[in-house]
Design brief:
The protein has 213 residues and is α/β, with parallel strands linked by helices. 33% of the residues lie in helices and 25% in strands. The protein contains seven helices and eight strands. A hairpin with a 2-residue loop joins strand 4 and strand 5. The radius of gyration is 16 Å and the shape is globular. The relative contact order is 0.26.
Length: 213
């Protein structure tokens, strides 16, 4: 039997100020261990660089890493405010499998009742995806796309073996494209959902601290 240290930390990474605000003002009770909230900046290069630098801190040795924030849904029928739990993240630099995704789904359903939770591959992009690019990415098997999750998790596992996950809130979808986050109902809905997800993240983290056989 092996265990992680009882105080194994959790690093939650997001890119945008509005995402950071939603998480910072959400309910942060019930953490299984120390939690660090990191705003990486926008784009894959900024995300990987920021996470790699932060994980160099000895206080975050072995930290679990969870990438979160907003995303674009790729599949028909997705709506703003839906949740995406990545089974894996993908970009041209590599694929990273995620840990304990079933538990995340269960806890998100509890934390944000009434919201649809989608699971599948989450792909990375270096720009905002619009129009036909959605269908091209959907054809690869991905269900959602964002600019930072894949780079965040790739940087995290390159820095050392650790549990990783990615949870995103759909802010726009094929039938609900937004021009600017937060200026229409869909963006506001996604913001409110993101404020509510932290209890699920804490439960995921707590489960990682339990004895493993």
């Amino acid at each position: 039997m092996s265990t992680q240290p009882a105080t194994a930390p959790l690093l939650i990474a997001c890119a945008l100020g509005i995402e950071h605000l939603a998480l910072r003002t959400g309910d942060r009770g019930g953490a299984g261990g120390p939690v660090t909230l990191l705003r990486t900046g926008m784009g894959p290069k900024a995300a990987e660089r920021s996470v790699t630098r932060r994980l160099a801190d000895p206080a975050l040795a072995g930290a679990a890493v969870l990438a979160t924030g907003f995303c674009a849904g790729l599949a028909p029928g997705m709506h703003p405010g839906d949740l995406v739990v990545a089974e894996e993240t993908r970009d041209p630099d590599g694929t990273v499998p995620c840990v304990e995704t079933d538990l995340l789904v269960k806890e998100l359903v509890r934390a944000v009742p009434g919201r649809t939770v989608h699971t599948g591959p989450l792909t990375g992009s270096d720009h905002v995806v619009r129009g036909h690019e959605r269908s091209d990415l959907l054809a690869t098997g991905a269900i959602a796309v964002d600019m930072e999750s894949a780079a965040t998790l790739l940087g995290a596992v390159r820095a050392g073996e650790r549990p990783v996950a990615a949870v995103r809130v759909v802010v726009d979808a094929p039938q609900h494209e937004l021009v600017r986050i937060g200026t229409v109902r869909g963006g506001i809905s996604a913001f409110r959902v993101l404020r509510s997800v932290l209890p699920a993240f804490h439960e995921w983290h707590r489960s990682l601290l339990l004895p493993r056989r």
